[in-house]
Amino acid sequence: MSDASYRDAIFTTPLDRVASFSFDEQVVACFPDMVRRSIPGYGQILGMLGVLAERHLRHGGHVYDLGCSLGAVGLALAARLPPEAFTLTGIDLSPAMVERARATLASECPEHRIIIEQGDIRTIDYRPASLIVLNFTLQFLDPADRDALLGRLYSVLEPGGVLILSEKIVAEDEAENAWLVERYHDFKRANGYSDLEISQKRTALENVLRPDSLATHHARLAGLGFERVTTWFQYLNFASMIAFKARPGGHPHDA
Ligand SMILES: C[S@@+](CC[C@H](N)C(=O)[O-])C[C@H]1O[C@@H](n2cnc3c(N)ncnc32)[C@H](O)[C@@H]1O
Ligand SMILES: O=C(O)C(=O)C[C@]1(C(=O)O)C=C[C@@H](O)C=C1
Questions:
Q1: For 25-173+203-248, CATH number?
Q2: pTM
Q3: DSSP 17
Q4: ipTM of the assembly?
Q5: Rounded distance between C-alpha atoms, residue 86 and residue 76, angstroms
Q6: From atom 2 of ligand 2, which residue's Cα is the shortest distance away?
Q7: Which of 56, 77, 223, 239 is the most exposed place for a label (fewest CB within 10 A)?
């Protein structure tokens, strides 16, 4: 992204009380740097989203980018697909994110039909879509709300459509999970975060980012009716899945 972004220094100094993490102005100002240094494979996932859209998005179809933050998914699709290939609606709860996403998209890809709206993805009205992306968003919803949201998304997805879900995950085996979390902290250290930053961010995310296991995600998506669910990417405790809605009488994953 070409917009000005500051280095993430939010948790560099010791805090008397670590407040719960929120997507406020301070986070928005350093968000591109934060996600690049905090989400293993973030850039690779975005790059592949364009490739997956080329394959699975119906020509001229509608895309939802739910929890769009600064619009990185829209930018990734616009980098690979021409303006006539899709329309996209990005939704985010944070007004600061929405304001900056609109400015970025207007300057980076003015020809593409991308709009950004402020709203809660649990309660907005949806229109039919060919591709729905939740790139590290579901993990921030109350677990009690996840089934209902994904059920609504399944119903608005066109037959033959796909849902792409990227999430921080928890491994069901305790020892495996501990190893993944430790190596994730090593990953953060290698990206310049101190032990203090890592531990204060961990506190801030408690009860805010609540990861599910891959088995929970797969069972939930299959239970809602998706014909096939594939984990196409995993890097430590971060993963991305693609879920296919069947096309009556056809193969669910036809391009
Ligand atoms: C980790 S960020 C998503 C990153 C982004 N998808 C990307 O690829 O760069 C999570 C986003 O979800 C948004 N969010 C959280 N709960 C939401 C809700 N109920 N409705 C809409 N957006 C929500 C947050 O404001 C935040 O911008
Ligand atoms: O789990 C962590 O420690 C993270 O920093 C992960 C994570 C995420 O997965 O969204 C949390 C908050 C920010 O949005 C960026 C990265």
A1: 3.40.50.150
A2: 0.96
A3: S
A4: 0.99
A5: 13
A6: 38
A7: 223
